[in-house]
Write a structure and sequence with these properties.
single chain, 55% helix, 0% strand, binds iron/sulfur cluster
Length: 93
């Protein structure tokens, strides 16, 4: 199920949302159809002052759809896997 970024931010009452560079942008840019370009969304994210907050929000919540913090779900999954591997390494060392 798709979630519109702006709605999600509003529901969660995230303080940084008011600074989001994507406010007012069409949600299809951030939730493109499979195989569609993500370039426009990523360009908006690249100039966003809350990019780090947004990315952390999506990574920690396991957001499975859309562009958050300038990264796709696949790119965020790599971060989650890396963090899991680092946590495991710390646990065994
Ligand atoms: S990083 Fe991108 S998706 Fe996140 S708030 Fe900024 S513009 Fe929106």
């Amino acid at each position: 199920m798709r979630r519109e970024l702006i709605d999600a931010l509003a529901v969660e009452q995230v303080g940084w949302k008011e600074y989001a560079n994507c406010l007012g942008a069409h949600h299809d840019l951030f939730f493109p159809d499979r195989g569609a370009s993500t370039r426009a969304a990523k360009q908006i994210c690249a100039e966003c002052q809350v990019r780090v907050d947004c990315l952390e929000y999506a990574v920690t919540r396991g957001e499975k759809f859309g562009i958050w913090g300038g990264l796709s779900e696949r790119e965020r999954r790599k971060i989650r896997k890396q963090r899991a591997a680092e946590a495991l390494q710390r646990a065994v060392s």
